[in-house]
Amino acid sequence: MELFFKVFVLFATLVAVKGDCDVVSKKQWDGLNPVHVEYLARPVDLVIIQHTVTRTCNTDAACAEIVRNIQENHMDNLNYWDIGSSFVIGGNGKVYEGAGWLHVGAHTYGYNRRSYGITFIGNYNNDTPTQASLDALKALLRCGVERGHLTANYHIVGHRQLIATQSPGRRLYNEIRRWPNWLEDVSSLKN
């Protein structure tokens, strides 16, 4: 029994330190708690990739500051319950918790209750995504499947395929179009 307790404590410590799927928690990036939550029916089969159209970031401090600014804008100016994205990825290769795996986000009108919105920090009409940020997305998606948040046959689409926007920017859009889970024809998704 004592061994079981020690293993449990070790596991709980690792989860608390590493977070779910190696995601930087809201507590770690000093985010605000949501004012309300709606739970997402899982597993989800749609991932929508976006960009922030802000400056890029390559350090933990700079990325966390941008994520905080986005959350404040979403909550204070747009009256969202929380930051709109499910996750935000920095050029430093870290994934920041937004609405997360469990809660409905506010990232793509008409698709929020059936998808995850993953947003890259930067303007990818001009910037090129870092390999670290692309690797972080791939690791997040793998973990999402392993943990039952995403279906094994999930689809990736660009934000621009669903609404009138340039997001996720030409360069990021061109990258994700080569990925195996890419969905070119979104007519089956349209509301």
TrEMBL record:
One of its GO terms (biological process) is peptidoglycan catabolic process. InterPro entries: Amidase/PGRP_sf (IPR036505), Amidase_domain (IPR002502), Peptidoglycan_recognition (IPR017331), PGRP (IPR015510), PGRP_domain_met/bac (IPR006619). Disulfide bonds join 21-143, 57-63. GO terms for molecular function: N-acetylmuramoyl-L-alanine amidase activity; peptidoglycan binding; zinc ion binding. Residues 21-163 form the Peptidoglycan recognition protein family domain. Monomer. This is Peptidoglycan-recognition protein. The lineage of its organism: Eukaryota, Metazoa, Ecdysozoa, Arthropoda, Hexapoda.
